């Protein structure tokens, strides 16, 4: 086993000593199950055979009465006010004798399933800071967004148990302060070592991926050159593909030089950020060449209508048809269903595009349309379907977002998803993508992922603000607690 540098050994020893001191100097915290559990599931959302045993096994630092209250209200409701109203009417024992606070020893976890709010409330001897309350609520948001009500409640109570009446010596601030002198150097070294290891891993992945494409391109180099030599230059698409071919040899030489330099690097060199960037550039360059030689082969076959032109045509139309098949699945999802108008237009547009692809194949078969005309029509279909997808996505965003800020947030996530897909895409040799690199991306999964990411971003933005007031009916009540939206 390779020895660690002396400096790292010293820092590890210091860190262990500091943590050991903390463990020896502080008495152990006693774990206590809930002193009582009350579940008021007025929303009918919880699965009690799962919930009850899970809550009974959660350990608190001090015996705590746990109340779970669910309701099915409205987004406009003040959850704090509604919880207090319910307690006053049905459970006055949850409130202190003077009526101004929550009862000692109490923790209330509240969930509004249709109003999409979560609240946490505490007796004076069990209260935690607003930041801690936000952390408890945040631990449930994702589960509640997925309508996992029971799991979300369990997660919320567990999160609260780890914070309520926590001994001072177990608070993160104390642990960080006590250990900072000995651990800051250790953390720095650990981070440094972790970054280097991560870079080596990513370097190896990029190099391996690039090598696969490089081998494929190199093995077919003579064949690609022969295909390029017979592409008709008078064809619009032939001319555009040949423009890319003129730089093919130079790019292949660049890839070869990069490969030779990168493969010669030792582990230390593979940990350097610049070399990782070069490895990724090598991967991207080789994948581009791998797609370009496919496009050259298909251009030769389709534009000359040789014996494999049908396969070449399927390569051009296949991506579009495959994506059109996913439109119905996207429209069936609640979040991406959009408005009836845009959904109907997209559905009709997808069917029209399918029919047009079949019609063009038949017309190519009996030579009633030229390859250039067929490709022109395919470009038009991609643009038309792209516009329909954009309109549908806009409808989804306008339907859900409350203001322009939220719409911009959703639109940014959609664009980011499309860019991620384009970056990660292994091209299948589309003549259209080579000839017109800025053609609209037709990828239903990228649209769905982008829209879902937009929903999550908006929900996170909405839930970032806490509500602490108890509304007009709360009077002078000032019990500790807050709520947020998910």
What does this protein look like?
This protein has helices at residues 6-25, 48-56, 79-90, 130-145, 149-161, 172-219, 221-229, 236-245, 248-263, 267-270, 273-304, 309-324, 327-332, 340-365, 371-400, 404-424, 431-435, 444-463; strands spanning 36-41, 65-71, 106-112, 117-122, 480-485. The protein is an alpha/beta fold and 486 residues long. It has a 5-stranded mixed beta sheet with strand order 1-2-3-4-5, with helices on both faces. Helix 2 (48-56) packs parallel to helix 5 (149-161) and helix 9 (248-263) packs antiparallel against helix 11 (273-304). The protein is elongated and about 95 Å long. The two termini are 49 Å apart.
Can I get a quick summary?
By secondary structure, the chain is α/β, with parallel strands linked by helices.
Order of strands, main sheet, comes to 1-2-3-4-5
Roughly how much helix do the residues carry, as a percent range?
Answer: 55-70%
Counting helices, strands and paired strands, the structural category is alpha/beta
Largest sheet: 5 strands, mixed
Count of discrete alpha- or pi-helical segments spanning 4 or more residues: 18
Number of strands: 5
Shape: elongated
Spans with pLDDT under 50 lasting ≥5 residues? 6-11, 21-28
**What is the CA-based Rg, rounded?**
31 Å
Distance between the termini: 49 Å
Secondary-structure element string? HEHEHEEHHHHHHHHHHHHHHHE
Provide mean pLDDT, rounded: 86
In terms of DSSP E residues, the strand content is: 5-15%
